[in-house]
Amino acid sequence: MNIILFGPPGAGKGTQAKYLVKKLNGYQISTGDILREEIKKDSDIGKKIINNMNEGKFVSDKIVNSLLKRYVFDPSKKEKLIFDGYPRSLSQAKNLDLLLNESNQIIDHIFFLNVKKEIIVERIKKRKILEKRSDDDLDTILKRYDTYIETTRPVLDYYSKNSNFHEIDGTMEIDQITNKIEGFLNV
Ligand code: AMP
To answer: What is the CATH number of domain 3-185?
Structure first.
């Protein structure tokens, strides 16, 4: 089963992705984690993206798409993809369709975790203390949220008419969200 977790930064996509990985023996594809790993390794890609990431700006489609491709085409991950933080723009959504098509896969479920801006800001402030992420300061949070509204939210129109699209109230307790998701999985 392939799943997309969609929603603003701080909506809880990563938390639910970890649950799905266990439940479905899946593989979490967090483009944020993949990119942070490049920075940690101080790779050529890491050097190119560090400024954008710290400022809450998107990393270029070219870089993100090329990193993603490896995972979609990895036979050991086929039909086990749990996307967390991808796609984040219409062009990424179209790129994902192409990659899935080429690798003979489909998306089984898209879960949209809907959370309002004020709650996002409070959650990310807490996360900054817990995870010490350098892009979690207030200015950057607001910048990331604006980018979400401008660039990522339009992806909803692309998916929302599909029968496998499910909107979930992301302000519920973690367990309640998990139960909702589980209700759609039929496993
Ligand atoms: P996240 O961990 O999903 O909140 O992502 C952290 C940061 O990584 C974002 O603010 C972007 O700078 C970058 N990033 C993650 N995923 C993507 C993506 N799909 N496209 C472009 N940039 C991304």
So the answer is: 3.40.50.300
